[in-house]
Amino acid sequence: MTTPLTCRNYIAGQWVNAASRSTLESRNPADRRELVATFPRSAAIDVDTAVAAARKAYRTWRLLPAPARAEYVFRVGELLQKYKEELAQLMSREMGKSLTEARGDVQEGIDCAFYNAGEGRRLFGQTTPSEMPNKFAMTVRTPVGVCALITPWNFPIAIPCWKALPALVCGNTVVFKPAEDTPACATKLIEIFVEAGLPEGVINLVHGVGEEVGKALVEHPDVDLVSFTGSSETGAFVASTCGQTHKRVCLEMGGKNAQIVMEDADLELALDGAVWGAFGTTGQRCTATSRLILHRDIKEKFTAMLKERTNKLRLGAGTDPKTDIGPVINERQLQRVSQYLDIAREEGAKVLIGGEIVTEAELEHGYFFEPTILDEVTPEMRVAREEIFGPVVAIIAVNSFEEAIAILNNTPYGLSSSIYTRDINRAFVAMRDIEAGITYINGPTIGAEVHLPFGGVKQTGNGHREAGTAALDVFTEWKTVYVDFSGSLQRAQIDNRS
To answer: Which range of residues forms the domain containing residue 65?
Structure first.
């Protein structure tokens, strides 16, 4: 047990308490007896102050040349390297993921910082010929304004970096609302931004509950853009509200990702992918493998291999180097996973292993759920269509490649997908026909890289993408510029030709 941290909001260059001085607690999900941090329970008045600070700072920040803005982002990357282990240890205690995964989370933030720092010397527009003589035409990128960033707990460093770093390079200012399960990670991240020297008001942190702080941000008239990562249900509210107030909105929401294993696959390789995809981060990733679509010719063999490997996985605190699977994030999520197992049984699915809340004495103070394999699942079952967000994978048997693709597509979501096959023709058909924003060939459904677009289709997103150059389209507006040096009136879109 360590001394609890006292987190505060960061507004206009100052660390401050919520106006109400109310606080909440963040506890270690592997051992809820450990208080990791206290943090402000902010309200609309705190959001008002933060947005006003961001609006004021925007006037000057947007005028700073993009290469100069990028230098701040580069320093953030250097500081993330410096504090990588400290952040990983804190993350593992606060949200439960293993130290190996926590270090990877921070590394993703580092990669994102250096990548976006490079964009400060690009931010390319276009030049194009005008249809008229002595006239020049081009496009340039301009910032959007004040950006509200609402992030989840499962990647408490990587996802805020995905959003904040391109937003800042593009000339926007930020109000950051982190998940209430990971306030300490968010606070340490903002301390790094402060140490990097960002001017006051350029980045602001407001802790609190989503229904209070998040809602106030989404509804605020001086917020120009909302970038939200979370559930599809909450995303629908965000999209509806932003639509009514004409805000730009970027949504990254749920997934019900599947890995197909065909009869010609390398089964050992597919097994590695299935275990990592299903149980990495305790299944608490929007890209987690929650469905395994197995060709009947290899289903029995592959299922036996999966059971054997899963039985060897060790549960425990993420800070323990021997741990394979950590806790789920909180009591509410633990009960949600358990309820889905009740639903699975009622629907006729067979629990091959797992399926229960862990009650062993050494883990009784944490939120642990057994790694679970469901068999005899049909595509219509709720456990085959709804996001569980826990260490649960459902096996669905198919007779053909075409059936596998059809079942993979048969959900409301479309984030990540995977197929294991040695048939190059099947691989290319899968790339064409799978309805998902991300497709892996002979790789698991998790493993995004920061220089490539991230996001999905259907109820997973609203058409935008995070990461890569696609993020620039979220955080900038296009402006078209014409320069007429003819010295006379030229009328575009009028038939001037004889």
So the answer is: 5-253+461-481
Bridge-based pairing state of the strands 23-28 and 135-143: unpaired
* 147 included as an active-site residue: no
**Counting beta carbons within 10 angstroms of the beta carbon of residue 233, is it exposed (0 to 12), middle (13 to 18) or buried (19 or more)?**
exposed
Tokens (6 digits) for 313: 């996985």
Count of other CB atoms within 10 angstroms of residue 21: 8
Cα-Cα-Cα-Cα torsion 149, 154, 156, 161, nearest 10 degrees, comes to: -60
**7 catalytic per annotation:** no
CATH number at residue 154: 3.40.605.10
- What are the helix and strand counts (H, E) for the chain? 14, 22
- What does the alpha-carbon distance between residue 257 and residue 365 come to, in Å, rounded to a whole number? 31
In this structure, the answer to whether residues 297 and 200 fall within a common structural domain is no
Catalytic residue among 34, 94, 286, 387: 286
pTM more than 0.90 = yes
The reply to whether 275 and 391 lie within a common domain is yes
Q: Of all residues in the chain, what percent carry a pLDDT higher than 70?
A: 99
Q: Where are the beta strands (DSSP E) in 313-453?
A: 350-353, 372-375, 392-398, 413-414, 416-420, 438-441
In terms of domains, do 270 and 410 share one?
yes
Looking up residue 382, the CATH number of its domain turns out to be 3.40.309.10
* Residue recorded with tokens 């789920």: 328
For the stretch 353-373, pLDDT in tens is 999 999 999 999 999 999 999
Are 242 and 330 part of one and the same domain?
no
Question: Are 353 and 332 members of one domain?
Answer: yes
Phi/psi of residue 130, each to 5°? -80, 155
The number of domains in the chain is 2
86 is written with which tokens?
Answer: 């400290």
The catalytically annotated residue of 34, 252, 387, 466 is 252
Whole-number pLDDT of residue 497: 63
Domain check: are 329 and 214 in the same one?
no
| Pair (437, 289) in one structural domain | yes
